[in-house]
Specification:
single chain, about 350 residues, Rossmann fold, six-stranded parallel β-sheet, about 25% strand, globular
Length: about 350
């Protein structure tokens, strides 16, 4: 079968490898339909990822059709159209026992810690696949359930609810995923970004307001929109120490700050700032069993998967797809490779 391999820094090779064989009664074999490109994949492609190094097959935002089931699988059958949750833990630690495998000390994400789905066929545990609603006619759209699940996780961690105002820094795929989920919960969202095309997309998808990140009156404008109190929830969907500081500064007293972006740099936040507002600061990592939540929202017509996809590429255009994901031209939200 064909597989897309990152074979070197900014090098893509279409390789031939053996088709996976079901070896456990709890496995299913999926004919991959589409894999969308995540920022993690881009970092690997550029040789910037701290531990994922070429040669490697990546891809964790994925979907397809089941072609074979292990003898112990009873909830699925050949022909089922599924989205794939790539996250799994050790299965025995406290986070795993309580349904929070994303916080397991040994957590793995397929396409990051182990081989990914950018190949014709992908073997996976049956517990990690989820049937797409019949209303999703375009199977390829199942690949964006995973980033939407990240947005659902962030909203859950931040206790986002009805009539709240949520300020989101970053209007890329994850920021948009947070916004779409927040809308399902009855919240209104303000988005901040450096790219005007992304802010325009956020506006089209129902944002309450959008602002350029370098707007010198950003704080004043956000306070004006929130009756001088600040947003109920602020979210860093980028991962930058300055943005974390802004989230702390702008959130309303007793509000919540969601840390969704990843950055290890020090920041200037003090305990006193958190104490004075009695705010809640939470981290949100990947997702914990949020696929059913997303698929239920899709089935109810509350969320449209197509809002997450801007470009599609064939397998033999993988290099072009990755280069576009690196260059981030105007109009790009998420690029997808269709098998």
């Amino acid at each position: 079968m064909n597989a897309i391999e990152i074979s070197g820094i900014q090098e893509i090779t279409l390789i031939d490898k053996d088709e996976p064989i079901i070896s456990s009664p709890d496995d299913v074999l999926v004919k991959v339909k589409a894999v969308s490109i995540c920022g993690t994949d881009v970092h690997t492609f550029q040789g910037e990822h701290p531990f994922v190094k070429p040669p490697v097959v990546v891809g964790h935002e994925c979907c397809g059709e089941i072609v074979e089931c292990g003898t112990g699988v009873t909830d699925f059958a050949a022909g089922d159209r599924v989205a794939i949750d790539p996250v799994f833990g050790c299965g025995s630690c406290r986070p795993c026992r309580t349904g929070r495998a994303n916080a397991c000390a040994e957590v793995k994400c397929r396409g990051v810690h182990v081989e990914g789905a950018m190949q014709d066929y992908f073997k996976i545990r049956a517990c990690d696949v989820h049937k797409l609603p019949d209303s999703v006619e375009d199977l390829a759209l199942g690949a964006v359930v995973e980033p939407l699940a990240i947005g659902a996780q962030a909203c859950w961690r931040g206790s986002v609810g009805e009539d709240q105002v949520v300020l989101i820094f970053g209007a890329g795929p994850i920021g948009i995923a947070v916004m779409l989920n927040a809308h399902c919960l009855g919240a209104r969202c303000i988005l901040v970004d450096v790219k005007e095309d992304r802010l325009q997309r956020a506006t089209e998808l129902g944002a309450l307001a959008t602002f350029q990140a370098n707007n010198p009156e950003l704080k004043e404008k956000i306070l004006d929109l929130t009756d001088g109190e600040g947003p109920h929830v602020t979210c860093d969907a980028v991962g930058h120490p300055v943005i974390f500081e802004q989230c702390i500064d702008l959130v309303a007293p007793t509000g919540t700050v969601i840390l969704l972006g990843m950055d290890g740099s020090p920041n200037e936040v003090t305990e006193l700032q958190i104490f004075r507002k009695e705010m809640t600061v939470v981290g949100s990592r990947m997702n914990s069993n949020m696929f059913p939540t997303i698929l239920d929202r899709v089935a109810r017509g509350q969320m449209q998967l197509e809002h997450m996809v801007s470009h599609r590429f064939a397998v033999d255009q993988a290099t072009e797809a990755f280069k576009m994901a690196v260059e981030q031209p105007a109009g790009l939200l998420k690029a997808m490779i269709v098998f």
